[in-house]
Amino acid sequence: MQTASENVEAPTDSTGLPLVLRLRPVIELSDDQLLALCEINHELWIERNAQGELLLMPPAGFETSGENAQLTAQLVTWANRDGTGIATDCSGGFRLPNGAMRAPDAAWISHARLASIPSEERKKLLPLCPDFVVELRSSSDTLRDLQAKLEEWIANGAQLGWLLDPRPRQLYVYRAGAPVLRLDNPVTVSGDPLLPGFVLDLQQVC
Asked: What CATH class does 2-204 carry?
């Protein structure tokens, strides 16, 4: 079943997460400092929003971690076979045009766009938005926050984004310039035409 975005209502659930750490105007972290902060606090999931605030989350639970591994494995397998880009997992950070630093649960970026980034810069936060992103909802995520995050990805240059909510089993499809679609209890979802031939088997994920 596909539902247009205007018919999708986000619940008002709240978990009190992520914790928000406001730094400005006291501290202004550079990208390198932010990356170093993430490395020495590897037990936390740290992102930065467009306002310069740090968003702190605990690690994912075992169940969510397994689901994330399954979807990333399928994307990596396709990317290796396709050969036109690179797939990344949840540890990859991207600096978006709006100044946010985000780390999707899985992403793909074309070699053509990566070619413009010097090799030394690729060892740091990548200064561009992926072509494709996936966000997987865990028990500590609110649907409203993840929907806003997908909208941010698209606004900053992503061509395709998927928001997977395992319970209830729903997937939201975001495309640049198109309404959001909700798929109820899907078995598979296709990445065509951006990711030709990539079909995510959701039965293997959740």
From this structure: alpha beta
